[in-house]
Amino acid sequence: MGKMPWLKLYTEIRTDPKMQALSDAEFRVWINLLCLAAESKVRGVICIDQGIPYPDEALARAMYTDPDTLKGALAKFIKLRMVEIDDDGIIYLINFDARQYDKPSDRPEAVAERVRRHRAKAKAEAERRAVQEDAAAKEGVTKNDCNADVTPLKRQSNTLDKEEEKDKERDNNPPKSPQGDVLPPPSDAKAKAEAERRAVQEVFEHYCRVIKPVKLTEKRKAKIKARLADFTVDELKRAIDNLARDPWIMGDNERGKFYATIEYVFRSTEKTEEWINKFDGRKGVKQNGQDRQPPRASPSADAGAGVDLNKFLWKGT
Predict the structure, then answer these.
(1) Tens-digit pLDDT profile for residues 257-300
(2) In what order do the strands lie in the sheet with 45-46?
(3) What is the domain range of residue 127?
(4) Phi/psi at 15 (nearest 5 deg)?
(5) Closest Cα to residue 219, out of 98, 304, 316?
(6) Same domain, 89 and 141
(7) Which residues lie below 8 Å from residue 281, measured CB to CB, with a gap of 6+?
C-alpha cells in the first residue's frame, strides 16, 4: 500500500485521559509517531523496512527530539498501552489500523471512478445537446431560443466536485453500531480486511495447536500480517510445523531455552522462508551427529488440542 498523505486526528484527543497524562514533549513525540506510522511501509509500525528497526538516534531525529526524551516518552507510551516494542526494537502502535483506516474516496481507483462517471455524464449531455441543436436548426429555431434548454448543461460543470463531496461526506460520517462504535466503510477494503483477519487467526491458531497456546497481542498480529504479504497461509503453517520438528528450537538445547516463538519465526521474510524450506528433502534433524526422526506430535500440540483459543486472544484498548 502506498503512503497515506494524511491521518485522522480525533477531537477527543483534547480530553483523552492518556493524552492528558503526557507532557508537552511527550505529546509532540506521539503526534510525530502517528505521522511516521502513517508513512511507514508497514502501516502502524515504526521501522525502516520490514524487520528493520530505527536506530535510536535516527528515530530521535525523525521525532525532532533528543534520545533521552524519546526514551522516556516510549516508556510512558508502553505503560499507557499506546505502543508495544518487540525484542528487535520495532515499535507497534496499538489500534492504529482500527482508527486510521484508509478512506475509500481517497484511493486512486475511487477517484478514477468519479472521473469516469463525470465524463460519461458530460458525453451524454453533449450528445443530447447536439441532437437538440440539430432539431432546432431543422425547425428554424434561433440559437437564442434554445438557451433555456442549454441551461442544464451549465449545471453539469460541477458534477465531479459534487460527487467527490458526496463521497467525502460518506467518509466523514461513517456508519456506527448500536453501541456508537465506528464501523468500517462498506467497500472492498472491508472484505480484504476481514480476509486478512481470518488469515491471521488461522495462522495463530495453528501455532497454538502445534507449538503452545499464547495470547494474540498486537505485536504478534503485526508479525503475522507482515509475513502474509509475502507468503500464503499454508506456507506459514509449514514454517510453524518445521519449528516443532526441531528439538533444539523447541528447548532441547544446552541452555534449555525455548526459541520457537511467533516473533522468532516471523521476524523477517528471510527467517520465515528459511523455516518454510527447513527440512526439504530431509526426514529429520541431526542431534549430536546422529539422525533423529521428528516427533509425531509435539507435546505442546497435545496440550493445546483441547484448549479454548478464544481466551488467548488479546483484547487491547
Answers:
(1) 888 999 999 988 888 999 999 887 554 444 434 444 444 333 34
(2) 45-46, 91-93, 83-85
(3) 105-172
(4) -115, 0
(5) 316
(6) no
(7) none
How many CA atoms, within 13 angstroms, populate the side-chain half-sphere of residue 18?
Answer: 13
Name the band, by pLDDT with cuts 50, 70 and 90, for residue 125: confident
pLDDT over threshold 60, residue 79: yes
The residues, ordered by sequence, that sit 6+ positions from 193 with a Cβ below 8 Å of its Cβ are 101, 184
Residue ranges of E strands in the chain: 45-46, 83-85, 91-93, 285-287, 290-292
- Give residues with Cβ within 8 angstroms of 124, minimum separation 6: none
Backbone phi, psi, residue 105, to 5°: -70, -15
Residue type, 169: E
Let me know: does 45 contact 4? Beta carbons within 8 Å: no
For residue 1, the cross-strand partners are: none
Is the overall model pTM greater than 0.85, yes or no?
no
Residues 209 and 291 reside in one and the same domain: yes
H/E element, 57: helix 56-62
Residue 308 inside a domain? The answer is yes
Instruction: Please provide residue 84's backbone torsions phi and psi, each rounded to the nearest 5 degrees.
Output: -130, 145
Domain count, the chain: 3
Q: Is 77's pLDDT higher than 90?
A: yes
Do the beta carbons of residue 89 and residue 45 sit within 8 Å? no
Contacts with 189 (C-beta within 8 Å, 6 or more apart), sequence order: 101, 102, 104
Please, is 195 exposed, middle or buried when counting C-beta atoms within 10 Å of its C-beta (0-12, 13-18, 19+)?
exposed
Bin 190: left if φ > 0, else alpha if -120 < ψ < 50, else beta: alpha
Give the pLDDT confidence of 46-66 residue by residue, as tens digits: 888 777 889 999 999 999 999
Rounded to whole angstroms, how far apart are CA atoms 24 and 31? 11
CA 27 to chain centre: 24
Q: Write down the residue that cell numbers 503475522 correspond to.
A: 224
Residue 234 sits in the same domain as residue 255: yes
